[in-house]
Write the structure tokens for this entry.
Amino acid sequence: MRPSRCYLSGAFVPLDEARVSVLDRGFIFGDGVYEVIPAYARRPFCLDEHLARLGRSLRAVGMGDPMDRSQWSALVGRLLADNDPNDQCIYIQVTRGVAKRDHAFPENTMPTVFAYSFPFPHAPLRLRQSGASAVTLPDMRWLSAHVKSISLLGSVLARQASAEVGAQETILIRDGWLTEASSSNVWIVRHGQLLSPPMDNLKLEGIRVALMDELAAAVGVALRRRPVAEWELRCADEILLTSATKEVLAVTLLDDRPVGAGSPGPVYAALYAAYQLAKTPAEQPSS
Ligand code: PDD
């Protein structure tokens, strides 16, 4: 197989030869933003939405956009064409660039742009059939969780807590209310209704958040956005996670207790099926 090539500030180089300066502000301060874009059979899914969020993240941290929309799309297309046709994810990271170490923004610094493609980490069949396990933790991340920042220590520590007990995700609670999970949005089902906390500065607005509106409408599930209390999470009939890599995943064990019936429920099944349809473009009838 060809060695995987990545994009680094203007050049395509083998991934294991790509180098950035130790003075890059991404390395020194975690001063940058990122995106993870899923792609199926070389077709990016929700590309416009991901690129729009990248633009929002850059604006939120006072960084200019180093490329326009068509340049970003061309970069994603090139990385997908260069890699094997199996499902991939494109990772994009933009940092404030290389500068003398000083917390304040440097002047006239070129941003560092890094992008590469990695194989889509499909959830194993076992998790699709039995569901995932999750643990809960207090949400100790900063108050701008809506920015897709590469400063991810809070998420890393949260995720490690579930990894250490063999669980797949850590669900975060702030002051008795559900926020999200270490790297996914969280949904619960109660009395047949799908509930998700309203988006604000305490959660990342996942690209699948708006998509779930469409999918829930398509499969006839009522969806309400309102604060979700910790106790509601704990007695939910179903718990779902969404992210670029998890797609839609059922949580069937929360803090060692079964969720609902203890197996993936009907709302999960309907939404997962709808997601699979949405990500696969319909065949054009041949003329
Ligand atoms: N994580 N919330 C957090 C904190 C996340 O890190 C993510 C995604 C999501 C879901 O967003 P989306 O639907 O756009 O993937 C919610 C990515 C996949 C990651 O960091 O790897």
Remarks:
- The mean pLDDT is 96.
